[in-house]
Amino acid sequence: MKSILDTRPALAAEIMKVAEVAGFLWEKGWAERNGGNITVNVTNEVGCGCSLPDKALAGPFAIGETLPNLKDCWFFCKGTNRRMRDLARDPMANGSVIKITEDCAHYYIVADAVVPPTSELPSHLAVHNWLIGKGSSYKACLHTHPTQLVALSHNQAFLQKDVLTKLLWSMIPETRAFCPRGLGIVPYMLPGSNSLASATIAALEEDYDVVLWEKHGVFAVGEDVIEAFDMVDTLNKSALIYRDARAMGFVPDGMSEAQMADLARAFNLPK
Ligand code: 13P
Ligand code: ZN
User: Fold this and answer.
1) Is 120 considered catalytic here?
2) Which residues have C-beta under 5 Å from ligand 2, the single-atom ion?
3) Is the sign of the CA dihedral 85, 148, 189, 231 positive or negative?
């Protein structure tokens, strides 16, 4: 079967990164059934002047809001109700390439099959709109259900501002170094809702790259999907160290404030 990827190696490379991460999410146990979703802004990889919208497979569909910075942008999206383990195996049958229309309020499904995009599309597209608006080079949004981070979100004490950031940073130097903006908090809201989208942007605006959706999952942004995944993986590693210390019968000491400040200076970290 002909694929949009056949003549677009740069687009194929981005979508292969999505497939690789989808496989990791499944192996980690963070992607039960259809859990989680990924979108990537692939406008540069599709190439401008592309005539593909004339050949759209389906649409236009309403986004549900007008996102002025997304005019004519292209995205690869996991399909709603599709499994990460299937996305890993066959990304073009379990995800789709969509194009936003000129009115910035609708999209067409362009390739390779009519796979309706994720139910979290409002959050993802609102975040992409915000990223473009602030001139960010970030192209990927990842939502997943990392078991131990979600478990921590079931305790109000951990949902106070930067309590988890400091706890997770203190478990291992890598977390301080590679998740230098920490973990923002978004209170529980209906999955797929516009209010969840606005609250996510408000949290990202506080200068976080990863935010925890209470009793649900995380939402991460990055230059590409690999970078977004690595941050979540690192934060969850810290959560595992914390859990294992507690399971061994003690509360872990954690690195001291002075040790973490030292790291921040040595690595020239943003916070
Ligand atoms: P989708 O299958 O629609 O992407 O939903 C999965 C999910 O995790 C919702 O929050
Ligand atoms: Zn979810």
Assistant:
1) yes
2) 217
3) negative
Instruction: Determine the distance separating the centroid of ligand 2 and the alpha carbon of 145, expressed in angstroms.
Output: 6
Tell me which ligand sits closest to the C-alpha of residue 37: 1
* pTM: predicted TM-score of the whole model, two decimal places: 0.97
- The ligand 1 atom at the shortest distance from the C-alpha of residue 37 is 4
Give per-residue pLDDT as tens, 85-130.
999 999 999 999 999 999 999 999 999 999 999 999 989 999 999 9
Q: What are the tens digits of pLDDT across the range 189-218?
A: 999 999 999 999 999 999 999 999 999 999
Quickly tell me which residue has 């809001």 as its tokens.
65
Q: Containing H/E element for 76? A: strand 74-78
Cα–Cα dist 37/118, whole Å: 6
User: Hey, what domains does the chain have and what are their CATH numbers?
Assistant: 1-119 (3.40.225.10), 146-271 (3.40.225.10)
Q: Which of 80, 115, 150 to mutate to test the pocket of ligand 1 (most atoms within 8 A of CB)?
A: 80
pLDDT at residue 55 above 80? no
Maximum Cα–Cα distance across the chain: 63
* Mutation to probe ligand 1, out of 18, 25, 32, 34 (largest number of atoms < 8 A from CB): 34
